Amino acid sequence: MTDSSSLLLSYEELVQNHANQFDPQIASLQQLVEIRMQEIRDAEQKLVEAQVIELKRITDALASDARCLLQIPELRAFVQELKQTRSNYWYNSEPKVSIAEDPTTWLLTSLELPIGLSNYQIHEDLDGYDDERHFIGYSYSLSLRLGAVEDEINIPLKRIYNVNEYSETSIKQQIEGYICGNIKYLLRDMKAPDEQKQQLAIEISTLIGYSTKIFALKPRTAIFEYSSISED
Question: Which domain of life is it from (predicted)?
Answer without folding.
Answer: Bacteria
